[in-house]
Amino acid sequence: MLATETRNGSTHGATVSVRIIATGIVIGFCYWAASVVMTLLVSILIAYMLDPVVEWLEGFRIPRGVGAVLVVLIAVGLITLLGLAIYSRAEAFADGWPTYSAILKDAASSVQKKLERFEREVSTLTPAEAARPAIRLADESPWQMLLRGLGSLYSVLLFVSFVPFLVFFMLAAKRDVWHGTLQLFSSTERTRVKQALDAVSTMLRGYVAGNLIVVGILSVASWIFFWIIGLDYPFLAGLVSGILNLVPYLGAVLAWIPPLVVGLTKFRSILPFLGIAAMLSFFHLIAVNVLMPALVGKRVHLNALAVTVALLFWGWLWGGIGLILAIPITATMKVICDHVDGWEPVGRWLGT
User: Fold this and answer.
1) DSSP label at 140?
2) pTM over the 0.85 mark
3) What is the pLDDT of residues 170-224, one digit of tens each?
C-alpha cells in the first residue's frame, strides 16, 4: 500500500512538472515568436467577425471562396478609406505640432522651476542630495513617436502583409479546418469539442462586435462634443478618445489626453479643460456601466481579478497589442476549461 501511494505521488509530481515545463515552453514561444502569434490571433478575431457576412452571402448561392474574397476586399477598402480620412487630419495636426510642442515644453519648464525652488527651500532643512534631472520633452514629431511606439518595422509589415491573406484562408476553408480539428479527437469527444468551438465562436464574435459598437458610439459622441465646443481636429480627437476609452481602468484618464493637448492652443483658463475631462469621464461611465455589460458582458464571463491578471500578463508580454488581446485570450481559455474534464474548476474560478 505504501509503495502504491509513493508511486502515485511520484506520478502526480511528474505530471505537475510536465505541465509546468509545457507552460514555460508555451510562454517562451509566445515571447520569442510574438510577431507571428499576434498576427495569427488578430487574424482569427477578424475572421470570426467577418464569418457571419460570408455565411449571409452563401444564402444567395455565392460560393464561400468568392464570398470570402468579396468580404476581405470590402473590409480592406473600408479600412483604407478610414485610414486616409485619419491620415489627412493627422497630417494637419503634425504640421501644427511645433506649436503644441512649444506649449508643452513651457509647461515642463515651469514644473521644473517649481521643483527647483522647492528643493532649494528643503535643502536648508535637509542634507544636500543629488541634483534632480531636468524635465525635458523629446524633440520628436508625432509621426516619429508613433513609429517608435509601433515597434519594429518588420512587425508592422508582417502584420499588414499577412493578416488579409490569413483572414481569407480562414474564411474560405473554415469548414475544412473545423472538420480537420474535430478529427484530431476521438469520436466520443467530438461532440464536446464542437460545443466548445461553437461557444468560442459565439464569444469572440460578440466580443469584437460589441467593442466595435462601443468604440463607434464613444467616438461619435466625443466628435460631436468636440465640434460643439469648437476644438480643433474634432474627428481625430474624438476617434482617438473613443478608442482609448476602452482601455481597462486607465481609459477614463487616457481619453483626456488628445483633447487636452489639442486645446492647449485654444483655451486659456482651466475651466474648459475641466469640462472636457468631466464630459469624457461621463462617457466612460456610460460605456463601462451600460454599453459594455449590454453588448460585451453577456458574451465574456470573466471576473475582475482574472481580467486584471490577464491585462498585466499579456500587456507585459506583448505591450499594447497584448492589452487588446488579453480579454479574448482569457475568455477563450475559460470556454475551453468549461468543456474539458478536470479543468472545470479553473473555468469557474475565471468566471466567478
Assistant:
1) -
2) no
3) 998 888 888 888 888 888 888 888 888 888 888 888 888 888 888 899 999 999 9
Burial of 324 (0-12, 13-18, 19+ CB in 10 A): buried
CA distances from 193 to 49, 138, 343, 350 (A): 21, 53, 14, 20
* Helices and strands, counts by H and E, the chain: 16, 0
pLDDT tens-digit map of 217-257 = 999 999 999 999 888 888 888 888 888 887 776 777 888 88
The one-letter code for the residue type at 282 is: F
Specify the residue for cell string 485619419: 86
DSSP-based three-state secondary structure for 230: coil
Dist CA 84 CA 167 (whole Å): 22
Output the nine-digit C-alpha cell for 181: 480539428
Q: Which parts of the chain fold into alpha helices (H)?
A: 2-32, 34-58, 64-95, 97-123, 142-150, 153-172, 174-183, 190-228, 234-244, 251-254, 257-262, 270-286, 292, 304-318, 320-338, 344-351
Contact 264, 303 (CB under 8 A): no
Cell numbers of 131, please? 541634483
Cα separation, 41 vs 300, in Å, equals: 17
Whose cell is 485610414? That residue is 83
- Alpha carbons 253 and 142: distance in angstroms, whole number: 20
Kindly state the greatest CA–CA separation across the chain.
84
Q: What string of H, E and C letters represents the secondary structure of 316-338?
A: HHHCHHHHHHHHHHHHHHHHHHH
What is the C-alpha to C-alpha distance for residues 236 and 82, in angstroms, rounded to an integer?
11
The C-alpha angle 198, 26, 302, rounded to 5 degrees, equals 45
Torsion angle (degrees, nearest 10) of CA 75, 80, 81, 83: 120
Cell matching residue 138: 523629446
